Amino acid sequence: MPFPDETALTNVTIALYQSNWAVEGRDFAHQLRRLVPDAAAIEHIGSTSIPGMRAKDCLDMMVVVDDISSTSAGSALEAAGFRRRPEPWNVEEPAEGRLWPKMVFAPRVGARAVNIHVRPVDAPTTRRALLFRDFLSADTFHRDTWARFKTAAAAVTTELSSYGAIKDPAWLLLMEVAEQWAATTNWNPSYLSD
């Protein structure tokens, strides 16, 4: 959930695509690389990373680490002023029959809206975040359909957790289509291609 100063995240508002999101994501990735130089990968993820996608005006960044239990990413981000989100769903996430560790950080007080997800390289959720981005970047029909769905969900409720509850089942269905696309195209996460 948002910290009290994160007023931009209090109510869900879906914005038209903004070309500056790609630039901001790239700049933020460079900043994170300086903070966590040993990361396996640093990626701009989520809807703001997808050209043409409507989204909440909040960047999602992902720091991929070899071992989340021994990484210095958390302490480096906290030392730089980012705040660790304490909610259970920001500490672990379910996938493939088990819970996978993660950390999520909020922006510095007063800074641009961002969520920094720290995930282990071997977690299915790491792969899925990149698959979501790459699939919807490649498939404009599904991108536009997802954007319409998100906009409709935000019209039903602007409360963040209720909006997420509406979106989650549809996201699972979308990811089944994305997995078919991945199999057909031999897609692999970008950090495996570097």
Automatic annotation (TrEMBL):
Keywords: Transferase. Coiled coil: none annotated. Transmembrane segments: none annotated. GO terms for molecular function: transferase activity. InterPro entries: GrpB/CoaE, NT_sf. This is GrpB-like predicted nucleotidyltransferase (UPF0157 family). It comes from Rudaeicoccus suwonensis. The lineage of its organism: Bacteria, Bacillati, Actinomycetota, Actinomycetes, Micrococcales.
